[in-house]
Amino acid sequence: MQASIEQLDRPTILAIARHEVCIALPLPPRTVRRIDQARQRVEALAAGEEPIYGVTTGLGALATTAIAPAHRRSLQHALLRSHAAGVGPTIEPETVRAMMAIRAKTLAMGYSGVRLQLVEALIQMLNAGVLPAVPEHGSLGASGDLAPLAHIALCLCGEGWALVDGERIAALAALQHHGLTPVELEVKEGLSLINGTDGMLSMLILGLDRLGELLDTADLTAAMSIEAGFGTDRVFQDALHRLRPHPGQQAVATRLRRLLHGSAILAHHRKSGHLVQDAYSFRCTPQVHGAARDTAEHAARVAERELQAVTDNPVVLADGRVESSGNFHGEPLAFALDFLAIAAAELGAIAERRIDRLLDRHRSEGLPAFLTPEPGTNSGLMIAHYTGAALAEENRRLASPASVGSLPTSAMHEDHNSMGWSAGRKLFRILDNITALLAIEALCAAQALDLRAPLVPAPATANARERLRREVPFRTRDAFAAQDIEAVIDLIDHGALTEATRAHLG
Question: What pTM was computed for the model?
Answer without folding.
Answer: 0.96
